[in-house]
Design a protein that fits this description.
globular, twelve-stranded mixed beta sheet, mainly beta
Length: about 170
């Protein structure tokens, strides 16, 4: 438990009992703004923690050459939460299963390079903060099929109130 936040620099975690055999567990791991949170050696395949990546330049890395710690990310467990906000974009290496919570904020995209599957207890939350042409809305993009169960939430943020007839392409799949 607890919160580790990199905000305005690089925070390096050299050893953690929260990362074992590809799974990140417990606590909240945040990279905010133009910062890097480095969990040395963490090639995360399963998230069972709370990961927040907030900002275009925010990074979660696993080594000193800034290799993305989520390069092999394929499962968000029932206890896992992934938050992408303010232009943070992430892509999976292939099929992806969401059993927990995913929040995609304005100007952010989560891309699954394969089939996206969401289980009955999972939640996908997309935030909308501006008119459709502004791009100020979250997006889930799957290059394969998408199988949805669970909950889809759409939340208005940044005091935005849409006009009738506005359409937002928040989910795209093959």
């Amino acid at each position: 438990s607890g919160i580790l936040t990199a905000a305005g620099g690089t925070l390096i975690v050299n050893t953690s009992t929260n990362f074992v055999a590809g799974t990140l567990t417990g606590g909240t791991w945040q990279a905010i703004g133009n910062s890097t949170l480095r969990i040395t050696g963490a090639d995360i395949t399963t998230n069972a923690a709370n990961i927040v990546i907030d900002g275009v330049s925010a990074k979660l890395t696993r080594d000193n050459v800034d290799a993305n710690a989520l390069t092999s990310f394929v499962t968000n467990s029932a206890t896992g939460s992934l938050v992408l906000r303010n232009g943070a974009n992430r892509a999976t290496p292939g099929a992806f299963t969401n059993n927990g919570s995913i929040i995609i904020g304005p100007s952010s995209t989560f891309t699954t390079n394969g089939i996206f599957t969401q289980s009955s207890g999972a939640t996908l939350s997309v935030e909308i903060g501006g008119i459709p042409v502004s791009g100020q809305f979250g997006r889930l993009v799957s290059t394969g099929a998408a199988a949805f169960d669970g909950t889809l939430e759409v939340q208005l943020v940044n005091t935005y109130s849409p006009d009738p007839g506005h359409a937002f392409p928040i989910v795209e799949f093959a």
